[in-house]
Each structure stands twice: as C-alpha cells, then as structure tokens.
Write a structure and sequence with these properties.
Trna Endonuclease, Chain: A, domain 1, globular
Length: 135
C-alpha cells in the first residue's frame, strides 16, 4: 500500500518514469566522460525514438512585475510539463537545485529534474515547484 501512495504522490509519474528511462539509457550507452552537448544530443535521439514531445533550449523570459528583465534557456522542456537541466560536473551542488527551482517558477512548470552525467552512475535531483497546482 505504501508504494501505491508514493506513486500517486509523484508529480507526473508516467512521464517521469519514461524520462528517467531515457536518462539512464543515455548514461549506460555513453558512460561518464563526455561534454554536456553530447549527452544533450543523445537525449534528443532517445526522446525522438520514444516519441516523447520536447522543446530543446526553450527560452524563458525573466519578469519583474510586467517588465522583462532578462532571459535564459532551459536545456529541455518535456511534454510542456517537466524542465530538464543537464550537467557534467563532479557532483550536483545545491546551487543547481536552487537555480532549477527559480527556472520552474519563471516558466510556471511544476516539476524539474537536474541530471548529472559526469558521475559513474547517473545522479539526479527532482525539484517540485510549490507555486504551481496541477489540476
């Protein structure tokens, strides 16, 4: 019963499961020695193969009130629901999680995943935006 509750409480459980499968497949095939751009290209290939909709390098406008004060690009937005940020660093830092949360708030997305391919095994963090309510 506990497992069913955990799955029910996950944000976008089916999409998350598929997306994590993509990330683990890429890590298993490429290992942990390449630059970020190569992992991004491999992720594109896997997402297309699995017919998972995505936008690559989606531009987000940072607003202060009604004024645009800057812009940034999310590595991926998956199915208009999940932000995916890719890293190739020795370890995931808290600042990456905080940055992803800020991106989620600006993009009005509920879920983000930051995935690091530099470690021997894929490391990742799921970040939930508490300001977005899913209907």
């Amino acid at each position: 019963m506990k497992a069913n509750k955990l799955i029910k409480d996950l944000v976008y459980p089916e999409l998350s499961y598929k997306l994590m499968g993509v990330l683990f497949t890429v890590q298993n095939k490429l290992g942990s020695s390449y630059q970020e751009k190569y992992y991004q290209r491999a992720i594109v290939s896997e997402l297309q193969e699995q017919k998972i909709p995505f936008i690559r390098e989606k531009e987000i406008i940072l607003r202060y009130g009604n004024e645009g004060i800057g812009k940034y690009r999310l590595d991926f937005v998956i199915d208009n629901k999940v932000a995916l940020e890719i890293k190739t660093v020795p370890f995931l830092k808290d600042e990456f999680v905080r940055q992803l949360l800020a991106y989620l708030v600006s993009a009005n997305l509920k879920l983000g995943i930051v995935a690091n391919f530099r470690t021997q095994r894929l490391t990742y963090k799921r970040v939930v935006n508490p300001k977005v309510v899913i209907k």
